[in-house]
Amino acid sequence: MGKRDPRVNAYIAKSGDFAKPILRHFRDLIHDAVPEVSETMKWSAPAFEYKGVLAGMAAFKAHCNLILWKASMVIGGKGNSEGGPLRNITSLSELPPDKTITRWLTEAAKLNEQGVRTPRTTKPKKPVTVPAELTSALSKNKKAKAVFDEFPPSHKREYAEWIAGAKGEATRQRRVASAVKWIAEGKGRNWKYEKR
């Protein structure tokens, strides 16, 4: 048997009047579809777990978003993204049929049981374009060049964007000088903020 969290009751109670029936209905559908589900609060909103995160819900001033953790795998299409079938809900009549939501929840629970992970949807970043001034300065400092060549792409990108973003030539040259010094010391562009 699943576990209900009193914090979810409080969350629903303080939500807008339009949101309360939506949130209660979705909560009940989750418990009916996956009786062993347990409730908690994550990211300041109700979350439902069954062998991992299963679903969540959030109420805003004028709409509710219902989140299915593996939406891309069980709903397909837009899933949880903007324009998806569980986004920007303002009344119960806007929800897909209960049968459909129940099927999605059941399929997502099975995926959790099987240990299937949600595929990452990050876009590959463009290759780093190092400004000519930095390339030239690094070629004159073997230590800095060796360190820069070993840097991860994120560190290279931070330096490249910082130098390329300089509006004036004098600023650009100061940044190149600072960059070469810090790179030779093995420091990333944001070294002042890195945990030590």
How would you describe this protein?
By secondary structure, this protein is of the alpha+beta class. It folds into two domains: 6-113; 132-193, no CATH class. The protein has eight helices and four strands; from the N terminus they run ααββββαααααα. The protein has a four-stranded antiparallel β-sheet with strand order 1-2-3-4. A hairpin with a 3-residue loop joins strand 2 and strand 3 (53-59). Helix 5 (132-139) crosses helix 8 (169-184), helix 6 (142-150) packs across helix 8 and helix 7 (153-164) packs antiparallel against helix 8 (169-184). The model has no long low-confidence stretch (mean pLDDT 87).
Count of DSSP H/I helices: 8
N- and C-termini, Cα separation: 46 Å
Provide the β-strand percentage band. 5-15%
Largest sheet: 4 strands, antiparallel
Mean pLDDT: 87
Number of domains: 2
Can you count the beta strands?
Answer: 4
- How large is the radius of gyration? 25 Å
Helix and strand succession? HHEEEEHHHHHH
Shape: elongated
Task: Walk across the major sheet and give the strand order.
Answer: 1-2-3-4
Instruction: List low-pLDDT spans.
Output: none
Structural class: alpha+beta
Fraction of helical residues: 40-55%
